[in-house]
TrEMBL record:
EC number(s) given by UniProt: 3.6.1.15, 3.6.1.6
One Pfam family from the record: DUF402
Binding-site residues, Mg(2+) 2: D105, D107, D120, E123
Keyword annotations from UniProtKB, A to Z: Hydrolase, Magnesium, Metal-binding
Catalytic reaction list: a ribonucleoside 5'-triphosphate + H2O = a ribonucleoside 5'-diphosphate + phosphate + H(+); a ribonucleoside 5'-diphosphate + H2O = a ribonucleoside 5'-phosphate + phosphate + H(+)
Ranges of residues in domain DUF402: 18-156
Record's protein name: Nucleoside triphosphate/diphosphate phosphatase
InterPro entries to which the protein is assigned, alphabetical: DUF402 (IPR007295), FomD-like_sf (IPR035930), Ntdp-like (IPR050212), SA1684 (IPR016882)
Species, as recorded: Exobacillus caeni
Length: 175
């Protein structure tokens, strides 16, 4: 897999397990692109849902992707602190069109005080049945939820103090 280079602007596309397009973010500026991690930044970008509805993000965000992990992390910079939204999904791939991953419904929302909440378990159960997620996918996702919670508790990776602020400073240099 090739990796996007710093300074390039690229859309992000999420798909569902059955191959249908779920959501597209119009553009993210790549701040770092390596075989270990891809970090991007965006601010008030257009998001298009699979049904054609569109909306804009409300604040600047730093996005963390890994070709090795079954989750991605969005750090949203708000006036009252950094909120995180974590999508459980396939490891990211990249082609000339976009950064891409399969969204597996489960999400974790993290508040500025680092408390968190697992979301969309009902949606996951429904789609697991409807789209016939293999047991191997279920196992890796459950393991990834535990890994993500461990990272949150340890303040590891994108949850490390200063991580979002440092990458936001880099993002501002590209704007």
């Amino acid at each position: 897999m090739s990796f996007p280079t710093a300074g390039t602007k690229i859309p992000i596309q999420s798909y569902k397990h059955n191959g249908t397009l779920h959501r597209t973010w119009e553009e993210t500026i790549i701040l770092k692109g390596t075989s270990k991690e891809i970090i991007g930044g965006n601010d008030r970008i257009l998001v298009t849902e699979s049904d054609g509805r569109q909306w804009r993000t409300r604040e600047p965000a730093i996005c963390y992707f890994s070709p090795d992990n079954w989750f991605n992390v969005i750090g949203m910079i708000r006036t009252d602190g950094i909120y995180y939204y974590c999508n459980l999904g396939s490891p990211i791939t990249h082609d000339e069109e976009a950064l891409k991953y399969i969204d597996y419904d489960l999400d974790i929302k993290i508040y500025p005080d680092m408390t968190y909440k697992l979301l969309d378990e009902d949606e996951y159960a429904l789609h697991k049945k409807e789209m016939e997620y293999p047991e191997a996918i279920d196992r890796v996702l459950q393991k990834s939820v535990k890994q993500l919670i461990s990272w949150i508790n340890q303040r590891k990776g994108p949850f490390e103090p200063g991580f979002i602020d440092e990458w936001y400073e880099q993002f501002l240099q590209y704007r």
